[in-house]
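hi!! sorry for the late reply, been swamped w classes. u asked for the two structures so here they r. pasted raw, havent cleaned anything up. first the sequence of the first protein and right below it the tokens
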Amino acid sequence: MDTRLLDFIVCPRDRSALRGSANQLICDQGHAYGIVDGVPVLLVEETEVPFTHNLARHALQSTRTDSPDLVPAPQDGEVDAFVSQWIAATNGSLYQHLVGKLQEYPIPNLRLPPGNGRLFLEVGCNWGRWCIAAARAGYRPIGIDPSLGGIRAARHVARQLGVDALFVVGDGRYLPLRDNTIDQAFSYSVLQHLSKENVRITLREIRRVVRPGGDSLIQMANKLGPRSIYNQLRHLVVGTQGFEVRYWLPGELLSAFRQELGPTKVEVDGFFSLNPQISDLRFLPRKYQAVVHASEALRKASRFLPPLRYAADSLYLRTKKTAH
């Protein structure tokens, strides 16, 4: 385990300090957490709180076996196998053609000012694409995700790309981080999958770990977007369960974020889909490139025509934490 993590992590149950050995961390109250392949697994047991994703269950199981089932680290020049298999799940359906065939990591551009060494937290980082983008923008990233496979892949990819970042298996509702530590919190295509109650719990945790004057930028799905409306109509037939997207009205988002995080503004992220980035055009077929170009044009237009935000499928909520 990277011992620098001990400067930031705490017990997710009682927030007391952690100490440990090569394969275990223990808090002052006696709660124990396993370390797998150098990754601390700081999850609260499912018997105490239901998991939001079944990959958390696999992560905990991996701490209880001498030989956990782990995807091998990639060789030099190889793309991590986990990333290649999960690329459509993390980046969206427009990337489906790349599953098992990925030749290069799609690293997005972060819509934030230069980091200048500020501490960056990504909630739900999976294989770490936004943490890598943050590091390249001058931040010091910490990525948290309930997937051990995702976190191991994030460490592999960061090492391959020469990026310095820290990663932990954890739950956004029980962030294993000290109070008032983070300068910039970020989450993309994650909270939109949680129940509204769990979103509020996670927002309160983000507020706890962000220092006064710090910032948050969180992506959510807009209930009024055209693609969102299509998906909601489809769900009337098949239903919504598990880790599928939950849709919010813009006013609902503003109300929840202002109550739980602080002063918040809504910005447009994109149209017609929830994940594709303009920086990823070379990864997409022409028909999808046209969708992304149209989305980017409308996003830029929304700066001058604010009502366009009501028709966007993907929104950003930008918040600054006040002292009280």
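now the second protein. again sequence first, tokens right under
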Amino acid sequence: MKKLTIAIDGPAGAGKSTVAQIAARCLKYTYIDTGAMYRAVTWLAMTRKISPQNSQALTDEVCKVDLKLELVEDKTMVYVDGIDVTEQIRTPEVSRKVAEIAQIPEIREVLILKQREMARLGGVVMDGRDISSCVLPDADVKIFLTASIEERAKRRWQELISTGVNVSLKNITHDIASRDKKDYEREIAPLKQVPDAMLIDTTGLTIEDTVQRILDACKERSGVV
């Protein structure tokens, strides 16, 4: 039976990573967190003090490093040259800068090629902001997840607090609203819902309910589930 390619898009804090990981596990598929890849590049730029304006230097650095995603006990671990940066890439500092990095054409070109190669044989659940519109326009199942800004900010705040990061809900709400504006208005591959994507508003939905809707969409597509 053909393995599906599933694309999940949506704004920051909509729950993409969480539900995509669970859906992938249910389907016995590979989960690919493209947002983590851009965050890793952002962390790399900050750590090595490479300005986003120096796109060639940053692109050269990205081409040289070993960027790896690995699922360990239901958690996606992110490694840059063997260094575990899973927690570092989720800090507010990285969150504020990642949209700028994601707009660099050369960086996008490198990462998109990596992402398409990962999905070439199917059997993947890939989430991000331009998966359906740019990375995998021929994906078998396309989902657009969203939620109110208040709901998304609360989720991100709880996530950060649980990892020991002391940040205010007000600041997180401001950061998410700012990120939304940049994502929707950027010139290159802006965040958008493509016409054939299924819209799921996760405000008020449980994780289980959201995952089930995605699995139902897969079942309707090919009877996989």
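hope this helps!! also noticed smth abt the second:
The chain has one domain: 5-211.
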